[in-house]
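Hey, quick one: can you model this chain's 3D structure?
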Amino acid sequence: MALTWGVAAAVLFGALLHAGWNALIKSSTDKALDMALLQLLGSLVGFPLVIAAGWPPGAAWPWLLASVAIHIGYYVALTGAYEHGELGLAYPLMRGTGPVLVALSSALVLGERLSPAGWTGVLGVCGGVLVLGLSASGLQRPRAVGFALANAVIIALYTVVDALGVRAATQAGGNALQYVAALFALDGWIYTLLVLRRRGWAAAWPYARARAPLAAIGAAASMGSYGIALWAMTRAPVATIAALRETSVLFAALLGTWLLKEAFTPRRALGTALVLAGVLSLRLG
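Sure thing. Here's the predicted structure for all 285 residues.
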């Protein structure tokens, strides 16, 4: 499998969607409730898709259930990172170290070994992402850094698990849409119930009613972003897609500057250049 320009363009669009829904969470006044609402709406959308596409084959279910469990930790760490740090700090740290972990684990688990140009691209993207995120302010927000780095490990874990799951589904006669639809249909409920137990329905309902239109857009972006990524993993190496997907950090930096009034510094410009060079190397590799 090799990365084509068509697959690369789709993943880049998915990266834009991913940065968009993360900026939405960061801009909210209650990140845990916003995340719960977004995931719940995604689950409600997932069920009609399951009815249309069908459930994935049985071979995919162990990976699917493992991914649902792993994603609970992802949501907890994501909201923790955004509660304690800026989008421009937390997002690059979460997304920048994951692709290296994915590349190492996919070589061991999936037998996919990158070319020298591919490794250059992965390291270029990761290096640029970390340059975008690392700053002196990071030292002043150790809890944000801790949540973000913990989430990087979680992201690498669910990426490999879902790659195995979607490939198991397609090899058993199913397709990527079935796996994605089932994942979203099941994914949001446990985290939502945990948040509701802590917040209470009386506090959650007014917030959810006011925030629902934006959350619906975020849910669609979340589903589209990850659906594109999983589809792409059936057509190109997992490590390549994981690294290319982290170009979402570029979009997050722009959204952070335009919408959240975060500064676009020379350091972020350097990080942007490194990411773009890494993307080109991935394509050539």
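One thing worth noting: The mean pLDDT is 84.
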